[in-house]
What does this fold into?
Amino acid sequence: MSIGDNTAGPLLAGRGLVKAHGRTEALRGASVDLRAGEILAVTGASGSGKSTLVHCLSGIVRPDAGSVTYAGLRLEELPEKRLSELRRTDFGVVFQFGQLIPELTVLDNVALPLMLAGTDRGRARSAAGEWLERFGVRGQAELRPGEMSGGQAQRAALARALVTGPKVVFADEPTGALDSLASEQVMTALVHTAREAGTAVLLITHDAQVAAYADREVQLRDGAVAPLGVTA
Ligand SMILES: Nc1ncnc2c1ncn2[C@@H]1O[C@H](COP(=O)(O)OP(=O)(O)OP(=O)(O)O)[C@@H](O)[C@H]1O
It folds into this structure.
């Protein structure tokens, strides 16, 4: 069985996650499952713990209690080095403000994760160009991120998140800074590409129109998943 081929259960599962930031309890026993290839929206009010949940599920932050299992591996049991490697090979991330490196061209931004994984520069740049093409921003490849529109920069950030062929993409408010047209273009590109590549997406959003692109939605309230159909 290869990683991600665990058809018997979820690809990624957080169970009873608890995480405090100082005296603020951001997560209070949150549990969530993500199946291979699934697009899951995590919604909830500001401060309900969405970003903290993603940080725990993606292994950036270790929870105070509870567990995260990815493809049968308990993240809390992995040494830091193995966890970093897993994050690099199996996970992609995209944030509200793309966070492309401003000094590099768009093409080099997208090529970078491949180069960090050992691909030579020429091949990395050629693959990066193909991914920019898929996201409709190849024409901007030689620009710096600051020279693109917000929507174009987010599509380039998605290309960077997907270029290594991750099993899971964590997208934390990827359209949060965009107008509705750009937001639609980014979501259409993300959903289309994720489906094509079989990538699971954990999508954080407070926007119902964005959540509607997902296969399923869970709502966080006060650091835990709210029962279905119950609104705040
Ligand atoms: N690094 C931190 N230090 C202190 N408190 C934090 C930190 N990160 C988050 N918090 C607090 O934890 C709670 C949950 O924050 P989190 O960012 O996970 O929520 P969120 O649902 O993603 O919010 P938003 O939609 O506003 O981004 C909030 O009360 C927040 O103020």
